[in-house]
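Slide 14.
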Amino acid sequence: MAETEEVSNKQIIFRDYVSGPLKETDMVARIGTIGLKVPEGSTGVVVKNLYLSCDPYMVNRMRKSEGSYSQSYTPGSPIAGYGVARVLDSRHPKFKKGDLVWGTTGWEEYSLIDAPETLFKIENTDVPLSYYTGILGMPGMTAYAGFYEVCSPKKGEYVFISAASGAVGQLVGQFAKILGCFVVGTAGTKEKVDLLKNKLGFDGAFNYKEESDLVAALKRYFPDGIDIYFENVGGKMLDAVLVNMRPHGRIAVCGMISQYNLSQHEGVHNLFNVIAKRIRMEGFVVFEYHHLYQKLLDTILLHIKEGKIVYLEDIVEGLENGPAALVGLFSGRNVGKQVVVVARE
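Slide 15: predicted structure.
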């Protein structure tokens, strides 16, 4: 193929900054073109995207914000997120044609990645490649770092996880069970609650939508209190948890999905418990723990091989269906890790 030859490139374009709830119409499909050779003078790679990850943090990049840990998207450009891809051409010494990689890429069929240093090369292909958007990718790293590094868990402790059937929550719960903790999760449908108890091995689970008093619901499952709370939702759930924490409890603040689509964020009223119970509450971002990736990989691949971990995926076919899948995260439409298949090669 000549170096100047271009091919068509289906893309999902970010229209403009979002102020209210995310809608499918905030994104639009467009056909562009791309050269499949890395330009002279670049140290980048050109990749064919195979699987894309839908993650709640992406809506924050669709807002015009300052001081965030992730840069806002540029209106009129393709949105970006974590994905799995195959290298078609490379001018970077770390990668060669044919390599499989995971990391940040565009929501498009092909991408030119100018700074591929943040990509991870995929060496183990004995598992589904889509796992590198989840259990072996960013969500897996998030669960691993948040639970083991931020929460400092001990065998026998009482662990509560919100959004427990999601990409991160389902892993935290299973890590906690492997360690020997008592684990309860919450989700928004009976189907998800049943999955937590019957497939993922949680000791208990409840549908938060059916509870008129979250403080009482948590007291029912944790009569002696909560040692570790893995926070994914924020708002009223966080307020109820603070009342139910045990002295010297730990809260890993991973996300607050209940707040992402609100123009006015809800306040938290029970923060005095942080003082009274000497609670350590810590936010974290996954890229600060990338140095632990090999440790995560070794641990999880062994757990998968030994059948100690189950991983749930919700797979949507076709890049054009990506916007609906992303929006669906905020109504709980997905069951497990939401993945968009761009190409199966």
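Speaker note: The mean pLDDT is 94.
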